[in-house]
Specification:
The chain is α/β, with parallel strands linked by helices. Helix content is 42%, strand content 21%. The strands form two sheets. It has a nine-stranded mixed β-sheet with strand order 6-5-1-9-10-11-12-13-14, with helices on both faces. A hairpin with a 5-residue loop joins strand 12 and strand 13. The longest helix has 16 residues.
Length: 331
């Protein structure tokens, strides 16, 4: 039996969340609903404006794959997370967050000097999240952050699509996938964001290589990557690059493909407050369930319920006990 159910590799960012209005985006030239990479000075200026106008709502250790790993760990999986933070206060906060959750990591006290990445998460009344991100030292994520021994002892390697935007991180993701295949570890990848599909598709194709065992994406990402407006055609195309997949459909639930048949997952009606982390948590809950021996339908139901709980609260994930309460109700 594998020591780790899921080995993740991805960005390490500390999220700072703010409740804003649509007018704020127009006034500041920010594209709503997208993740945009910005420089540190731009982010510092944006942070000043956000704090003055709206006040900080929440701070949490984030990054797309990190949210997935937290969800899987809190539900009962044993996980490992490879990432890169600096030897600064924000990096200390991030490492402590992982440690408190029981997640094993490559990070230790002897980290490089620099600036830990931060993400300004702006949430509008319609619950849509818009992100402006300064990657900081996480942009330097490289093959040296990969723990080969931990990877070899894992059931799945989970790769974050956001890594495509950095040359070194993309190379690390590709190496991680090669190592997984070399040691018969199953591979999973998430597209992470429509912007990654729109602006970095060639890099994602490179990261996918000959395909993955499991692909996560939302409907917009599926359509964009397949280059079609027809959802049926998009699903057909995804079957050529992934042995199986999970496509989240927002308020319409999700559709799964287990390699043989498609499975529809019903949504859970909630009042959405913040969509940040919903897809990440879906992936984490789903991977926990399938590695714990549950069937795909059950895994999808758990993932759907977890993600609905996440969007009903502020922040990229739930409190540890909340995951266990949902698990008890579903499984």
């Amino acid at each position: 039996m594998a020591k780790y159910q899921v080995y993740g590799i991805g960005n390490a960012l500390v999220d700072k969340e703010f409740e804003v209005n649509d007018e704020f985006f127009a006034e500041n030239g920010i594209e709503k609903g997208m993740m945009t990479l910005i420089e540190e000075d731009q982010q510092q200026q944006l942070l000043k404006v956000l704090k003055k106008q709206f006040g900080l709502k929440k701070r949490a250790g984030g990054g797309s794959a990190a949210n997935t790993i937290f969800a899987a760990q809190y539900l009962g999986a044993k996980t490992f997370y490879s990432c890169n933070v600096a030897n600064d206060e924000t990096g200390d906060f991030y490492v402590q967050d992982l440690t408190n959750a029981g997640i094993d990591t490559n990070l230790g006290p002897n980290r490089d000097a620099g600036v830990t990445g931060k993400c300004m998460v702006m949430v509008t009344p319609d619950a849509e999240r818009t992100m402006n991100t300064f990657l900081g030292i996480t942009a330097n994520l490289g093959q040296e952050q990969i723990n080969v021994d931990a990877l070899k002892e894992s059931e799945y390697v989970y790769i974050e699509g956001y890594l495509v935007s950095s040359d070194s991180a993309r190379s690390a993701a590709i190496q991680c996938k090669k190592l997984a295949e070399m040691h018969s570890v199953k591979t999973a990848l998430t597209f992470s964001d429509p912007a990654m599909v729109q602006f970095f598709k060639d890099g994602l194709v490179e990261m996918l290589g000959d395909g993955v065992d499991l692909l996560f994406c939302n409907e917009e990402e599926a359509l964009g990557f397949a280059g079609t407006d027809d959802f049926e055609q998009a699903k057909t195309y995804l079957k050529t690059i992934a042995k199986s997949f999970a496509i989240t459909l927002g308020s319409k639930g999700a559709v799964l493909f287990n390699g043989e048949q498609e499975i529809s997952i019903e949504p859970h009606a909630v009042t959405a407050v913040d969509s940040n982390g919903a897809g990440d948590n879906f992936a984490g809950a789903f991977m926990y369930a399938i590695t714990a021996g549950h069937d795909w339908k059950t895994a999808g139901q758990l993932a759907s319920k977890i993600s609905s709980e996440v969007v009903s609260k502020f922040g990229p994930r739930l409190d540890a006990q909340d995951y266990l309460d949902v698990k008890k109700a579903i499984l």
